[in-house]
Design a protein that fits this description.
There is one protein chain. By secondary structure, the chain is an alpha+beta fold. It has a domain at about 45-140. The protein contains three helices and four strands; from the N terminus they run H-E-E-H-E-E-H. It has helices spanning about 50-55, 75-100, 140-155; strands at about 55, 70, 100-115, 120-135. The chain is elongated.
């Protein structure tokens, strides 16, 4: 069957076998990802060795997940990293409650990067920053500050006048 100008109408749909000189070029390492290679990149997201072998590990001194390096699929990395950072937030609140403290602020940042091999944007990690104020009633400086605040800041601050 011929198409316009005698050219086979189905020629664009034919799949050609891989050239024998390049046998490992099209190995699918990340199923479900795009096989389209971006300009200037070594591989497509489906063939990317870097994304396949990427591992995540926690560097803090707290008892949380990912103390040992582990692989997370690129699709699940965002939720797994957010969940991990929430463990740090939870630990801060537990520590504050246990040691007579108050969590003043908690900030979580999720970091992204671009894979140098395939160009895919991925979640590369996270950072949790917490501020905890601890109250130590036995500390003489704390006692002095409390009495100084009472005399200078709070005395006469609220006046209730009965008529």
């Amino acid at each position: 069957m011929s198409g316009i100008n005698g050219v086979n109408a189905y020629a664009g749909a034919v799949s050609y076998p891989m050239p024998p000189e390049d046998p490992g070029k099209h190995i699918i390492r990340n199923p479900g990802e795009s096989t389209e290679k971006q300009a200037g990149r070594k591989s497509s997201p489906a063939e990317c060795e870097t994304c396949k072998n990427r591992q995540y590990q926690d560097g803090s001194d707290e008892m949380v997940s990912f103390k040992a390096a582990a692989h997370i699929s690129p699709d699940a990395a965002a939720s797994r990293v957010r969940s991990h950072e929430q463990e740090h937030v939870s630990n801060a609140y537990k520590d504050a409650a246990k040691n007579n403290g108050k969590v003043m602020s908690c900030n979580v940042a999720i970091h992204t990067s671009v894979c140098p091999e395939c160009g895919r944007t991925f979640v590369s990690g996270g950072t949790t920053s917490t501020q905890i104020k601890y109250f130590n009633e036995e500390n003489p400086y704390q006692k002095e500050m409390k009495s100084s605040d009472a005399a200078n800041k709070y005395l006469g601050m609220n006046v209730d006048i009965a008529c």
